[in-house]
Amino acid sequence: MRLYLDANVVVSLFAHDALTTRAERLLADHEHWRLVLSDFACAEFSAVIRRRVRTGEIDEAHAQRTFSRLDHWAREYTSRAELQPSDIVAADVLSRRPDLSIRTPDAIHVAVARRIAAPLATFDVKLAENARIAGLDVLT
After folding, report:
1. What is the pTM of this model?
2. Tens of pLDDT along 27-58?
3. Which domains, and CATH codes, for the chain?
4. What three-state secondary structure class fits 79?
5. What are the b/e assignments for 77-113, b being 16+ CB within 10 Å?
């Protein structure tokens, strides 16, 4: 079984925040599942780390160590789901649905998870709600 990781789960794993213990427990509870990380989630992760450098929360050396740890972990323990043009089309379709109130980045995550037929792991309550309405299994 595969499990698609939203960027907020990955950030909590590597940037130590209030949800780190929850992220570690989620992965431990699904240790036999194949973890899937998209290039889009990695880009979002990088943006979060860069924002923390800009705001002075962490320094550049810390950011580089965090990027290195993520890159190593991703190579060793996850498979990569590359964003495809069809994911953007699917995200657009989701964004137009009147029963969803979904942001574009979240719609992209839902589209990728649906394409690879994997449940979505996220701590974002609104994303989880929208993903469930869209028919996706969600782990929080």
Report:
1. 0.95
2. 999 999 999 999 999 999 999 999 999 999 99
3. 2-139 (3.40.50.1010)
4. strand
5. ebeebebeeebeebbeebbeeeebebeebbbbbbbbb
